[in-house]
Write a structure and sequence with these properties.
96 residues; 4 strands; 34% helix; globular
Length: 96
């Protein structure tokens, strides 16, 4: 199973790392996120959406930033594909 993790990075780096750590504990389960994309010929949005297409589960982590809109496009694609989506919202009191 491939699990796509979507969020802005600057404000949710620790949360992404925690989710990745949990995902990597499961056998036959792969973390998919911007951290592993590497250099690609296509633009960042296209690369992200293409990766969503290869996944079986979508995890969205929301915090206090909007960013460039890539996260929204990833989520839209997951919904279009009918992927199971788990959405987590960071407690407002802990947003810096």
């Amino acid at each position: 199973m491939k699990v796509f993790v979507s969020s802005t990075q600057i404000d949710l780096d620790a949360e992404r790392a925690a989710v990745r750590s949990v995902i990597e504990r499961f056998e036959n389960t792969d973390f998919v996120g911007m951290e592993i994309f590497g250099a690609r010929p296509e633009d960042t949005t296209t690369a992200s959406v293409d990766e969503v297409d290869r996944c079986d589960l979508f995890i969205l982590i929301l915090g206090g930033r909007y960013g460039s809109g890539i996260t929204e496009k990833e989520y839209d694609r997951a919904l279009e594909r009918g992927l199971p989506c788990l959405v987590y919202i960071k407690n407002e009191a802990s947003i810096g």
